[in-house]
Design brief:
Layout: H1 2-12, E1 14-15, E2 21-23, E3 26-28, E4 31-34, E5 37-49, E6 52-61, H2 68-73, E7 78-84, H3 91-105, H4 108-113, H5 115-123, E8 134-140, E9 144-149, E10 152-157, H6 160-171, H7 178-184
Antiparallel strand pairs: 1-2, 2-3, 4-5, 5-6, 6-7, 7-8, 8-9, 9-10
Helix pairs in contact: 3-6
Amino acid sequence: MKKLILLAVALVATFTADAQVTINDVKVEKSLTVEGQELMLNGAGLREKLWFDLYVGALYTTVKSGDGSTLVDADLAMAITLDITDSKVTQDKMKSAVEDGFEDSCTDAERAAIKGDITRFIGFFKDAIVEGDEFQIAYVPGKGTMVSKNGKALGTIAGIEFKRALFGIWLGDDPADEDLKEGMLGKS
């Protein structure tokens, strides 16, 4: 089944000469700039649940890596973009998915230590989410995790502990979607 899904993603994704990738009609840029630092595309993939294509996720890093644990722990600039591709992704479902993601990405003690940060992050999803929205979650050492929606800053949460837990949702040992993790790590 996994091979069939990977084949389907490969058929959906097309690469252009400038290394831009298109997944599920979303053009994923080959690089993006965060706080003046250029990050390169590490990989991208499609978040699926049942037969719904929920969003395209892309990971940008300063150094390409196929090791999720190393990236989660790294105190290096990096970013994740989430391009919503299905109207089934609502603010309530996003909040619930993020809560579940934190439960899977860190221990109870780790979660307790950043509880206020998690609550603040979930608060960033207070406005309606519609198909076509893009979220950018960018970590900058010494500054923290900056979140924006459609280019509008929503807020910044300081601390590497929060970044580790958040990026662990997609890149950790128990990711939200294994195939998306593989795509973000450049393995599919």
